[in-house]
Amino acid sequence: MSASLEKGVRVLKEMIDAPIASYFNSCVHCGLCAEACLFYTETGDPKYTPIHKLEPLRRIYEQEYTLLGRLKKVLGLSKPVTDAELGEWQELVYNSCTLCGRCSLVCPVGNDIVYMVRKFREGMAISGHAPEGIVEATRRTVSTGSPMGVTMHAVKAQMKHVEEETGISIPLDVEGAEYMVLLSSMEIINFPEYLSAIARIMKHAGKTWTLCSTGFEATNSGIQIGVSDLAKTIVSRIVEGAERLKAKTVISPECGHAYTALRWEGPNLIGRPFTFKVQHILEVLDELRSQGLLKTEGFETDRLTFHDPCQLARRGGVIQPQRNLINMVAQNFVEMPDAGKMNWCCGGGGGVTAIEPAEALRIEAFKKKKSQLEAVKPDRLVTACAVCRTTLEEGLEHYQMNIPVVGLTEIIAEHLPEQGA
Amino acid sequence: MPTNDKDFKAKLGALPIAHQRHVGALFVQRVLPFSSDVRLKAALELALRADASDAELTGAYQAANTARVESYTRCGSVCDWADQAGHFVAKAVMACVSPAAEGESLAWEAAMSARMARTCQTVADGSGTENREAEEQYRILEAFLNN
Q1: Over 60: is that where the pLDDT of B79 sits?
Q2: With bands split at pLDDT 50, 70 and 90, how would you rate the model's confidence at A420?
Q3: For testing the chain B interface, which of A142, A190, A217, A379 should be mutated: the one with the most B CBs within 10 Å?
Q4: What's the pLDDT score for residue A170?
Q5: Which residues have a Cβ under 8 Å from the Cβ of A135 and sit 6 or more positions away?
């Protein structure tokens, strides 16, 4: 057994906690998780059955923690987990799993399969079986703070661009501001319109806000690769920044997993409660709406539908705010089948877009989204996650579907009364 | 000559759509060298032609959109800011050939994306965040209006 495999297997053994043990014991092999996974439904290949993706972890559990399994191991009747096997499983644990959580939601015995995949990824990473793309992203996060190599210099360049465009000053490191706004690398690189929209909306609502030079990045590749120590480091940067600036609320951007990483896993990662509130930008906008601080004028008249990011709606529980906001500005909004908590993933989350060999499978899996869209035939598709946005655009382009994709925060900003913009 | 973006945007918005395409294309010409995509060059040439048909514009728009989508920096990939400048060139070209209704701000959108292309290029070459793209665009508009 190689040193890395030995270490990986040891980590996997350590990862098997009471919930995982009970999940393996509870599985009734019903197959419902298969029907919930777009990688299975769109390929028909049984290897993509979510619970099957955990088979090496299940065997380690059986061999190490059950009486019969230990006996079989002593008698040489069980099959040990090998390097080659973990290598083969990389495709199943990373390429064909976006951590979307649909399998966990449908499991009749309540097994949180995503939790198990996350734990499995920890051992895969340590044994050297994480995909190169995600490993590189993680290295960049350690060295620059961003998985895509975005530095404060680039953020300042975008700030300047937005200041010119909007005529609004972008606050940086302002102590005592009500909101500390995070950005994802994807927004800094591909979608400057998000920061522009934030500037206009905050001015309109009369709220104080700031970016933080030491904690601007929301993306948490530690969560994606499955390295808790790194995930903790990334969360800690944000926490230190927010506490230094005495922010009351930290706003997670239009990035699905950044929200779950910070809001739902963050306090557990750092081992204490936050001294500030964490909200997704859509929650903040809906709150401003309900307080009468966000007013819009005019309506989009074309047919709009909304793609719920999995981490926001299913894993994060944010479902109604986006609908309240769309209804402020859309006259012809239509829901896709399975919208809301049962929405189908775009196919790009959980680090999948960073894995080049996963591209063909991702495009194949996109057929599920294609069928959802064909059912309602929208003129435009609205979403609230930068990764979903680019994944959707690539899928639509591949299948030659002419449906522009837009961010919800931007649409809201476009409908602000002129004097407030 | 406009001296600020509010004035600049208002002047662009007042132009008929054909003129917006033309002046937008003039803005984009300054940053076109940041992209080597031949589809964008062809689309931009079309935007500069007064006799471009709706069918030609639709085809150019689709080609530019494909170039834009293909040039996204994917989540988790390292950002090459020079390539990213090319992405915003594609976005700017798209604006110039978009099948927008009269009154929409095609030229303004082209101007903003051209500025982002320039910004990306300044990040790529490490020359800081300062550039004179806005002033150059004001000058181009003024010259266009005076012709």
Answers
A1: yes
A2: very low
A3: A190
A4: 98
A5: A125, A225
Residue A7's pLDDT is 82
Question: B44 to chain A, minimum CA–CA distance in Å?
Answer: 21
Q: What is the pLDDT of residues A194-236, one digit of tens each?
A: 999 999 999 999 999 999 999 999 988 887 777 888 889 989 9
Domain boundary among A106, A130, A154: A130
Q: Is A135 buried (19+), middle (13-18) or exposed (0-12) by CB count in 10 A?
A: middle
| Domain coordinates in residue numbering, chain B | 5-146
Q: Are residues A161 and A273 in the same domain?
A: yes
pLDDT per residue as tens digits for the range A140-187? 887 887 889 898 999 999 999 999 889 999 999 999 999 999 999 999
Same domain, A82 and A213: no
Cβ–Cβ below 8 Å for A148 and B73 = yes
Other beta carbons within 10 Å of A388 = 30
The residue of B12, B61, B75, B109 whose CB has the most chain A CBs within 10 angstroms, and thus the best one to mutate to test that interface, is B75
The model carries a pTM of 0.93
Quote ipTM for the complex. Answer: 0.91
User: How many distinct structural domains can be found in chain A?
Assistant: 3
Q: What number is the average pLDDT over the span A303-332?
A: 96
Residues of B within 8 A of A147 (CB-CB) are 75-76
Q: In what order do the strands lie in the sheet with A330-333?
A: A330-333, A300-306, A380-383, A405-407
Q: Give CA A409 to chain center in angstroms.
A: 17
* Claim to verify: residue A121 and residue A179 sit in the same structural domain: no
Considering A77, A108, A130, which residue would you say is the last residue of a domain? A130
State whether A155 and A265 are in the same domain: yes
Both tokens of residue A267? Answer: 């306090």
Q: Best interface-test mutation with B: which of A148, A155, A189 has the largest number of B CBs within 10 A?
A: A189
Q: What's the CATH code of the domain at A397?
A: 3.40.50
Give the pLDDT confidence of A342-382 residue by residue, as tens digits. Answer: 999 999 998 899 899 999 999 999 999 999 999 999 999 99
Print the domain residue range for A402. 290-420
Within this chain, do residues A161 and A274 fall inside the same structural domain, yes or no?
yes
Q: CB distance A167–B69 less than 8 Å? A: no
Q: Return phi, psi of residue A302, to 5°.
A: -80, 170
Cα A151 from Cα A156, distance rounded (Å): 9
Query: Within the 65-104 window of chain B, which residues sit less than 8 Å (CB to CB) from chain A?
Result: 65-66, 69-70, 72-79, 81, 84, 87
